Amino acid sequence: MSSKKPRDIFDYFDELFKEMEEEIAEFERRFSRSLTKGDVDLPKEGPYFYGFRVTIGPDGKPKIQEFGNVKKAKGRPILSEDIEPVVDVIERDDEVRVIAEVPGVDKDKIKLTVSGSELHLEARGDERNYSTDVDLPAEVDENSAKASYKNGVLEVVLKKKQKKPTGKEIKIE
Fold this sequence. Notes:
Mean pLDDT: 82
Number of strands: 10
Protein name: Heat-shock protein Hsp20
Radius of gyration: 22 Å
Domain SHSP: 78-173
Order of helices and strands: HEEEEEEEEEE
Domain CS: 82-171
Structural class: alpha+beta
Family: Belongs to the small heat shock protein (HSP20) family.
């Protein structure tokens, strides 16, 4: 008899979080070294935002979404004037709902552009600017877009494009 117990789901999450902690620690070390050497051009005095969140995708695999104004490219930190906001995309039967956190801006300073299956968000505030491109899970009807903004949370609801059947019916003789 084997005394080895089966692994439970929390063991996988423990491993995932340990790997993420190691990656974040390495990123912080590289970022600090780059600042010390002067390899990073700071666009302005802080604040600097960096964060991530982990969700489980429809395929059952974890998805990591980074947000903030600090990115990593070719092993170097890249700082941006614009903050990439936290964005949720919720797909329903006939609609796609996008929820973005963009605190500190007036609603008349938010610009949204939708094309096909992509939504571009740009928001300009006195102290913060946000910008991101959101890949939507389906093509949407641009004319159906409705947006609301309250307490720093932007919500955009878009109807999915109705797919017309393609092909030609074949009559049986």
